[in-house]
């Protein structure tokens, strides 16, 4: 039986010029989750191509003392959903929380509905297929730790729960930075055994974006 332990990246730099950089809190979250997973002896550590994913994997591996090689796989990258959605309709000012939430929910529904797939660089179905293919490739490789993002994690959990777009939309905003999702592979296929575990984080270090 193999297991894939998927870790969401540490907190990035929301509001900064370059979002794709771990904040100081994000770096510490990565070290904390590494120490919490130090009992594992991964055969492989995988991360997406985004800097926040790679840096999370590096910090966690160092804190855990893992000797397994680190491997990059772009299929674990986050979907740039806001860039995609903004091509359809202008993004309202995030300081207007009500207007922003209304826009986001409408944009998410349009993207995941499947009726306008040609309008997007990556459709909802294609994004979910990408995540599933990435998981399938490591599911039989023993114990694998993956540093990814909320989108791919939510896509995989949605599929493993036989959910649909509504499930995905509910899961996505709940993913905690360095939250841990565990999937095992066995005779019956892939099974979700834990989602978004974050007991390793003290309350003041729990963040969602």
UniProtKB/TrEMBL annotation:
Pfam families: His_Phos_1. Keywords: Hydrolase. GO terms for molecular function: hydrolase activity. Gene3D superfamilies: Phosphoglycerate mutase-like (3.40.50.1240). SMART domains: PGAM (SM00855). The keyword Metal-binding does not apply. This is Histidine phosphatase family protein.
């Amino acid at each position: 039986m193999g297991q894939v332990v998927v870790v969401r990246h540490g907190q990035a730099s929301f509001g900064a010029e370059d979002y794709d950089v771990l904040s100081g809190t994000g770096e510490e979250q990565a070290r904390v989750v590494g120490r919490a997973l130090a009992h594992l002896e991964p055969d492989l550590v995988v991360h997406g191509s985004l800097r926040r994913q790679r840096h999370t994997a590096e910090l966690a591996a160092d804190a855990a003392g893992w000797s397994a090689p680190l491997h990059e796989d772009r299929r674990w990258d986050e979907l740039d959903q806001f860039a995609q959605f903004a091509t359809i309709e202008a993004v309202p000012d995030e300081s207007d929380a009500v207007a922003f939430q209304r826009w986001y929910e409408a944009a998410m529904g349009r993207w995941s509905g499947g009726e306008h797939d040609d309008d997007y660089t990556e459709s909802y179905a294609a994004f979910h297929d990408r995540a599933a293919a990435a998981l399938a490739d490591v599911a039989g490789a023993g114990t694998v730790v993956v540093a990814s993002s909320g989108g791919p994690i939510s896509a995989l959990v949605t599929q493993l729960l036989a959910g649909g777009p509504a499930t995905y939309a509910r899961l996505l905003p709940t993913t905690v930075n360095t939250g841990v999702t565990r999937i095992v592979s066995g005779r019956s296929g892939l099974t979700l055994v834990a989602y978004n575990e974050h007991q390793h984080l003290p309350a003041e270090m729990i963040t969602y974006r």
